[in-house]
Structure formats: C-alpha cells, structure tokens
Amino acid sequence: MNMLDSSETKMNSLRDRDANVTISEIAVSAGEWKTPASSQISLAITLKPTSAVQVKPTAQYPKNTPVGNISICRMNDSRVFEFAEETAFGHITLNEDLFAPVLQDCGIKRVELMTFDILEDATLLQMTTILLQQRRDRFQAGALFLDSMVTALSSYLVNRYSATLPLKVSLTGGLAPSTLRRCIDFIQANLTESIRLDDLARETGMSPSHLIRSFRQSTGKSPYQYVLELRTKRAKSMMRDRRLGLTEIALSSGFANQHHLSRIFRRVVGVTPSRYRANLLG
Q1: What distance in Å separates the CA atoms of residue 52 and residue 38, rounded to the nearest whole number?
Q2: Distance linking the first and last C-alpha atoms of the chain
Q3: What is the chain's alpha carbon radius of gyration, rounded to the nearest angstrom?
Q4: What are phi and psi of 26, to 5 degrees?
Q5: Beta carbons within 8 Å of 73's beta carbon, 6+ residues apart
C-alpha cells in the first residue's frame, strides 16, 4: 500500500506471503490524506478516535470514528479525507487467492463484499485486533496461528458480508480416522518446524477452513491448539533432564524462544515452566 506523501503518513507494515496477508499500522497527520486504491480486499481499524471530512470525489459531512471502528474498504477506489488532528489506523489487506477455498466451500464464484465506512462488529474487531497484535509481536505465535486466524477472518467476511448469499453447506462428522492419523503424523514429524495450515490441508485434501472445522470435530481442538499441546507435552518431558536449559527446551519443542514457551506453558499448564520444573524435580 503506497501513500501520497511520506510526510503525511508513517506506515509500519509486515507481510506474510504464504498467508496472503499484509498487516500495517498507519499514522496520519492532521490535514488531507488520500486513501490508496487497493485491488484486494482490505479492512481499516481506527486506533485513535478522530473526525474526518471526505473532500474528494464528493464532499460529505464530518464523520466521527471511535476507536475500534471497522471499515470494509471499497476496492479500486481512492478518496481524500481531511483530518482535524493526527490519528492512526490499522490496515489489513487480504490477497484474493486466500478466498478461493472459502468461496468453493460457500458455492460462490468470486469474492465481492459489501463495503462500510463505519461498522461495529465485535467479532471482526477481535480478529483484526489479534492480527495487529501479532504484527507487533512479529508473528511470535507462529505460522499455523497466523494461517488459522487469516482463514477464519476470510471465512467470516464471506459468510457475513458477501454481496452474494453463500450456500449453507452442511458438514457432518469429523475427519476419517486414516485422514486424522496422517494429519497428526505430519504434525508430530514437523513439531519443531514452522507448520503451515496449507501443509495440513494438503495432507487431508481439504480446504483450510473445512480442515479447521473437521479437525475440531474430531479432536475438540483447532490444529493450532493441538500443536501447542504437543509442544507443551514435549517440553514437560524434556524438563526431567536437569542438563537442559529452558531456552534449549523451548527451541527443541518448537517454540520461538524461552519467552514464547513461558507464555504458552503458563496458559496451558497453569504454572510457569520454572515452577513446574521445580515441583517435578523436587
């Protein structure tokens, strides 16, 4: 996404090509600002409350946008707004390729969303907030979490805001036992690697969104939650060896670093790795 003038905006952007998503934070100074004309589906999230007047292509009355406001942006459309004070936005761009499996599941030929300048949607706000926080954390939660969030976001957008009514696809049951076994074997064999949702989808022959639903029906967990539990179990087992430090255990269990291990371990087990190890070894 390109801005008119670097003096008007400051943008901090991270892109994950495999997940087909670009996540940005944009600081906008007071004065006129031209929105980019994007050919992809994009969302804007207000991070600082503001009031703006649309100047071009047609003048409109001021609009107050509170923190947490979501905009589903118009595609291939550029507008000029005037801001009375500096503000900030989160911006998430989703590549059209990301929607292909979702469209197939919903029986829609192409993605076309209804657009909104001011939208209150608690679910959409939660998803976009999580993605923005992941950008700030430089995607520490890993590729599988990012893939799962982006897939969930694209599916939600199509099912909730598609201009074409999606078909209601009834999915019963979970994965076939042999398919589930292949999926779990792949996870276990690649536990220390960066597992992508597309990798698991290829193992099952399903779309990513269908895989997430079916995997949860079979195991009671999402693929990401399942991977975290396996990594936590491996870490717990390795903690029996007094010679191993927590950093080595973290990396050997598939976590990004010791901090990542500590955060997830406490969430899953209920205590810190250090406390668990002390209780384990006496």
Answers
A1: 20
A2: 55
A3: 22
A4: -120, 125
A5: 35, 38, 41, 42, 43, 44, 115
Q: What is the pLDDT of residues 139-198, one digit of tens each?
A: 888 899 999 999 999 999 988 898 876 655 555 578 888 999 999 999 999 999 999 999
What number of CA atoms fall less than 13 Å from residue 167's CA on the CB side? 11
| Residue 135 token pair | 């950008």
Strand extents, DSSP E, the chain: 9-16, 21-28, 31-34, 41-46, 50-56, 63-65, 70-72, 80-83, 87-94, 116-119
Cross-strand bridge partners of residue 50: 65
Question: Residue 166 — φ and ψ, nearest 5°?
Answer: -70, 150
- Contact present, 50 and 97 (Cβ < 8 Å): no
CA–CA distance, 72 with 117 (Å, rounded to integer): 7
Kindly report, residue by residue over 224-239, the tens digit of the pLDDT.
999 999 999 999 999 9
SS3 at position 253? helix
* Coil, strand or helix at 234: helix
